[in-house]
Every structure is written in C-alpha cells, then in structure tokens.
Write a structure and sequence with these properties.
The protein is built from 7 helices and 14 strands. The mean pLDDT is 92. The strands form 3 sheets. Strands 3-4-5-6-7-8-9 form a 7-stranded mixed beta sheet, with helices on both faces. A 5-stranded mixed beta sheet has the order 11-10-12-14-13, sandwiched between helices. A two-stranded antiparallel ribbon has the order 1-2. It folds into 2 domains: 132 residues, Fructose-1,6-Bisphosphatase, subunit A, domain 1 (Fructose-1,6-Bisphosphatase, Chain A, domain 1); 110 residues, D-Maltodextrin-Binding Protein, domain 2.
Length: 261
C-alpha cells in the first residue's frame, strides 16, 4: 500500500512523544460547545497531521477533530489527535492517537497508538491486524453474554438501562472514556465487545479496519455498514456472536420506542 503505513506509523510515534511530554495532572484545558475538553496538545498534534498530509499527499483530504481540509477527495486521512482527551487532560492514561486512511468512505488502513504502554496496533485491508509485528485476533472464547465477558460502553445516560441489563446478564461492564482504547482491547482479545454512541468519523475509522482485520465485526449502532468520510451513527464491535447479541440489546433499548437516538 505504497508508503501509507510507514507514513502513518511515523506520525503515530511523533504524536505519542508529544502526548507523553505533556501528560500531567493539573493540565490547562478549555471546554468546547459539546462539553468536551480541548488542550494545547490536541491542537499541536492536529497541526502535525495536517502539515504532514499536505506536504506528502497534497491530493488527499483530511478529516480531523480540531481542524480539517476535506473537499470530497477519494482518499481521506481521518484523525483524532487525542482520542480520550477527557482522561488525558485529567491525569489517567486511557487515550490513543488514532489515524485511518479512507478510500471512497471505506477505511483501508488503521493505526491506534497507546503512548503510555507503547502499544502500536495496525491494520491494512485484507492484510490482517497486528500489535507491533504480532498478529492479533478478537476473543472467540466469550460467545455468550452470560459467560461474564468484559464489555466497554462509551456513551452517555442513554446507555444507563442497557448497562444495567448487561450487568444482569453477568457481563463485566466498564468505560474508558475513549472508544479507540476500548476497541484496541477488543482487537487484542482482552475485551469481548464495545458499544459507542457517537457521530464523529475520526472516532471510528481506524477501529473499523482494525476490528475487521482482527476477525471481528464492526457496524453502526443499528448493525449496518457505514462510511467514514462523513458523520457516523455509533459503533457496535465484537466477535460475531457477541456483536449479534449486543446489536439485539441496543436495538431494544434505543430503537423500540424506549430511547431516541
């Protein structure tokens, strides 16, 4: 895939170094209109990606959380400079650098980098998913929600009753305030599944190709495929069995006249 993967990995390591240098308690931050925090580090890394893509692939678009340059190009780099700015800015280490290359709406390359534990997860379409150079797979042991699997839920109060339902099944339910961190653990086989209620493509593009190349399923909140060069409709991820069960529960709690999404 040309030099796309090497380009993305180099950016990930640069972004990770910036994150590590600036990760501290008592961090200064602003609050955006959607009640999420913004730090100087977000802006620095976002600018790093914009500059690198413009210089290296000037005919590609860029969709990034803090600033974009997108005009319906065939190839689009979709980036969250710090997914998990909330934990990053409050002193707990569940955040990643997330970067994907999307062609005609479909992710063909995904990179997630956890700079604290130095975990680099990569995937290319039809080439498999890897932690560094080691192949990774989603868990196949947790085929039932009654087998006490680990499930991450990344969302607001809309999921409170669903969380209680999953706990009732015996699931161990948690949140990291970072969907890419949750998805990374699913791809590594540590968590059985994850659910995210959001609309921003930079939170999901890298996840899509990584989960599928790791043998899992990644769909929108309705269980449907979606594009990642426009607004998305949440995520459900897991192996086939867990995904199907989560999709059924999410459908009941969000779409069967119980919640509005």
């Amino acid at each position: 895939m040309k030099n796309y993967k090497n380009f993305a990995i180099a950016l990930a390591f640069k972004a990770g170094e910036i994150m590590k240098q600036n990760f501290t308690t008592g961090m200064q931050k602003e609050w955006k209109g959607d009640h999420t925090p913004l730090t100087k580090t977000d802006l620095v890394i976002n600018d790093l990606v914009l500059t690198a893509v413009r210089q290296t692939y000037p005919d590609h678009g860029i969709l990034a959380e803090e600033e974009s340059c997108f005009h319906n190009e065939e190839y689009v780099w979709v980036c969250d400079p710090i997914d998990g700015t909330f934990p990053f800015s409050h002193g707990y280490p569940t955040f990643t650098f997330s970067l994907a290359l999307v062609k005609n709406g479909k992710p063909i390359l995904g990179i997630l980098f956890d700079p604290i534990l130095n975990r680099l997860v990569t995937a290319e379409l039809s080439q498999g998913a890897f932690l560094d150079n080691k192949p990774i797979r989603v868990s196949e042991t947790s085929s039932s929600l009654r087998a006490r699997p680990l499930i991450a839920i990344e969302g607001g109060n809309e999921f409170s009753r669903l969380r209680a339902e999953l706990v009732g099944y015996g699931c161990l339910v948690t949140t990291f305030a970072c969907i890419t961190y949750s998805a990374m653990l699913v791809a590594l086989g540590e968590f059985a599944g994850a659910i995210w209620l959001g609309k921003t493509p930079w939170d999901g593009a890298a996840i899509q190709v990584i989960i599928e190349e790791a043998g899992g399923i990644c769909t929108d909140i309705r269980g449907m495929p979606q594009r990642y060069d426009e607004s998305v409709t949440g995520l459900i991820i897991g192996n086939k069995s867990v995904h199907d069960q989560l999709k059924h529960l999410v459908s009941a709690y969000l779409f069967d006249n119980k919640f509005t999404y």
